[in-house]
Design a protein that fits this description.
The complex is a heterodimer of chains A (400) and B (217). By secondary structure, chain A is of the alpha+beta class. Chain A has helices at 6-16, 18-53, 66-73, 87-94, 121-125, 146-152, 199-206, 236-246, 255-308, 313-352, 369-390, 394-399, and strands at residues 58-62, 84-85, 98-110, 113-118, 130-133, 141-144, 159-160, 163-164, 178-184, 194-198, 223-224, 226-231, 250-253. In chain A, 54% of the residues lie in helices and 16% in strands. In chain A, the strands form two sheets. In chain A, strands 1, 3, 4, 5, 6, 7, 8, 9, 10, 12 and 13 form an eleven-stranded mixed sheet that branches. Chain A has a two-stranded antiparallel ribbon with strand order 2-11. Chain B has 217 residues and is α/β, with parallel strands linked by helices. Classes of the chains: A alpha+beta (400), B alpha/beta (217).
């Protein structure tokens, strides 16, 4: 340290009191780490859910909980509420207020990834592009989402059998194997963890005899799980849900409304954690204040000699502020790393559950505020000690 | 180089110091004598510009310290005064080398590293340059404080009871070092002490005797 400045002097002072320095670093690290974690997870979940539900105005499914309907057919988390008749899709398509109806037929999965019977409108809705192969154009052809393909290690041309149910371990439908015809590029949406196939495949798998001749009359008794509806006109929002709900077997749910309900639920938990993190930061600030204040008592003589050697009062004030900020910034850096590390661990753990996918090292612009928060904490903790250092009575201190 | 006239100073209205007239020629040393509470430290602080005189003048090389603003006094002190305070006030978190170069930080200059090495050599601190103050003896600490005071090649070297905690051997060595270093730096020594050993050692120094509190100058 041949060239001294406020930073190197503060570092030396902090290194001189390792126990107190480490304790304060830990407190700031915990507070900022919790802040980072909560902020990153909740923002990513919200962003992800918004993207998954974007552009879908209404979901039509079997009667039951509208929340469950959205969870099962938009986010592919929950189990479906039941099935609806195929005719419902036709009558909705015939409605002039409706721009598009995307059918969804759920029920099976492959290695934990849901097999979704649908049409080409579903990948098109997510602007999905093919990484390899082609889109399905016949029953029993399947297109894998990017994550589903990566994690199952499946390739175009391979065959696989779906298993009954939406989780792993269901009865295998060995009699009706699928053939992989395409793999999609990552879209950053729920599509990445789905296996898409024509609706007819799902029906065929569940027919008792897959080799039975296809009878068009049977289609009328075939069912779907849900319909994703896009409005042609905003007017549809007024009349369409009411019409759907008046049908004996149907109910409608609005993704925007149900997502908001989800975030309200998750938000309470996040708010509690955020409050705890804020409390930890207040404790950290208090602890730093006590440490700096006590250190000031011991350092009266060094600060007085600095003044006696010609340092202006502002220089001594700055020295104390820098020391507070150094502690807080150090804690913020560690906390930020720890927070993202925790998100990465949580992401891995959540990925196993096939829920929302989040990433540990997704950086959000608002995180740039963390160093500012740390600086504020450091300055507040150091303010009173710094002011006392500014006002130090050199003559009296050096004579003591 | 030092002219004091009609200097008066009081703490909280209590008269502690008055010096009618005192002058010191360049290269000469001065000895402030007087019992505890007679205002020796106060006078050193006034000459250093740490305290501002309430009346009278202290002129050092043409500058009246008593007329300087606090900020100007800080800057003037950084350039012209070396301080050896009674409480040595070494910074415990910094090694000897950094303690000596501290005035460069305080005054905002570039560190003069050859000067630090020169002082470390002259004061026998070569093997201790990386040691922390708490690992040194009182005599060694005193020498570090002296090196710090001499770093800027001050015109005035002010020492407040420099021998208070030293045995006879160390006391003699310190006074010899003070005289040698002051001569090498071309500085005038102003030593406040009531130590007989210092009085005996600083023969030839001009004496300013301060009366006991409550007495009359």
């Amino acid at each position: 340290m041949r060239h001294m400045n406020a930073w190197s002097l503060s570092l030396a002072a902090l290194a001189h009191k390792p126990l107190s320095t480490v304790l304060n670093l830990i407190l700031v690290t915990m507070g900022i780490g919790m802040m980072t974690f909560i902020f990153s997870v909740s923002t990513q979940l919200e962003r992800r859910a918004t993207e998954d539900a974007a552009g879908i105005d209404l979901v039509v499914g079997a009667k039951g909980s509208p929340f469950q309907l959205i969870m099962s057919s938009v986010f592919h988390i929950d189990i479906p509420t039941g099935n609806i008749p195929l005719e419902a899709a036709d009558s909705l398509r015939a409605n002039p207020l409706v721009a598009q109806v995307i059918p969804l037929a759920l029920g099976d999965s492959y290695q934990g990834f849901r097999i979704v019977g649908t049409d080409a409108g579903y990948p098109a809705h997510f602007h999905a592009a093919l990484a390899r192969g082609a889109l399905f154009d016949a029953p029993m052809q399947a297109v894998f989402g990017a994550q589903a393909a990566r994690e199952t290690g499946i390739a175009v041309g391979a065959s696989f059998a779906g298993s009954h149910g939406l989780t792993q371990g269901g009865e295998s439908h060995g009699h009706a194997p699928y053939r992989v015809v395409g793999i999609l590029r990552p879209t950053g949406t729920v599509l990445d963890r789905l296996v898409l196939t024509p609706v007819a495949s799902v029906w065929r798998v569940h027919e008792t005899d897959p080799d039975e001749a296809h009878d068009p009359a049977a289609d009328r008794h075939r069912e779907l799980t849900a319909l994703l509806v896009k409005y042609r006109s905003p007017l549809a929002a007024v009349s369409l849900p009411r019409w759907v709900n008046s049908q004996p077997q149907l109910q409608s749910a609005q993704p925007a409304l149900e997502s908001a309900r989800l975030f309200k639920l998750v938000g309470v938990g996040a708010d509690v954690l955020r409050a705890i993190a804020a409390a930890v930061l207040v404790i950290a600030a208090l602890s730093m204040f006590v440490a700096l204040y006590n250190a000031l008592e011991e350092r009266q003589a060094d600060l007085a000699i600095l003044r006696a050697l010609g340092a202006a009062p502002g220089k001594v004030l700055r020295l104390l502020l820098v020391q507070g900020c150094l502690l807080a910034l150090g804690g913020a850096l560690f906390g930020w790393l720890a927070g993202h590390g925790a998100v990465a661990v949580a992401a891995r753990w959540m990925a196993e559950d096939q829920d929302f996918a989040i990433k540990g090292w997704t950086l959000l612009p608002q995180e740039a505020l963390l160093p500012l928060l740390a600086l504020a904490i450091g300055c507040i903790a150091a303010a009173i000690p710094a002011w006392r250092a500014y006002r130090i009575d050199i003559a009296r201190t050096l004579a003591r | 180089m030092l002219e004091i006239s009609r200097l008066g100073h009081a703490y909280a209205g209590r008269h502690v110091l008055s010096v009618e007239s005192f002058s010191l020629a360049p290269g000469r040393h001065a000895l402030l004598l007087g019992p505890s509470g007679s205002g020796k430290s106060t006078l050193l602080n006034l000459v250093a510009g740490i305290l501002t005189a309430q009346s009278g003048s202290i002129v050092v090389d043409g500058t009246d310290i008593a007329q300087l603003s606090p900020r100007a006094a800080d800057a003037w002190r950084a350039r012209n005064v070396g301080l050896l305070p009674q409480q040595l006030a070494l910074v415990p978190s910094l090694p000897v080398f950094e303690n000596i170069v501290l005035p460069a930080y305080a005054a905002g200059g570039t560190p003069d590293l050859p000067r630090v090495r020169e002082l470390i050599g002259a004061l026998g601190l070569t093997d201790l340059a990386r040691s922390k103050p708490q690992d040194l003896s009182q005599g060694q600490r005193q020498r570090v404080a002296m090196a710090r005071a001499l770093y800027t090649r001050p015109r005035l070297l002010l020492a407040d009871e420099p021998t208070a905690n030293l045995d006879d051997d160390n006391c003699a060595r310190l006074v010899a070092l003070l005289l040698a270093q002051a001569a090498a730096a071309g500085a005038s020594l102003l030593v406040a002490s009531h130590d007989v050993r210092v009085v005996q050692a600083l023969t030839g120094a001009k004496v300013l005797r301060l009366p006991a509190p409550g007495g009359y100058a």
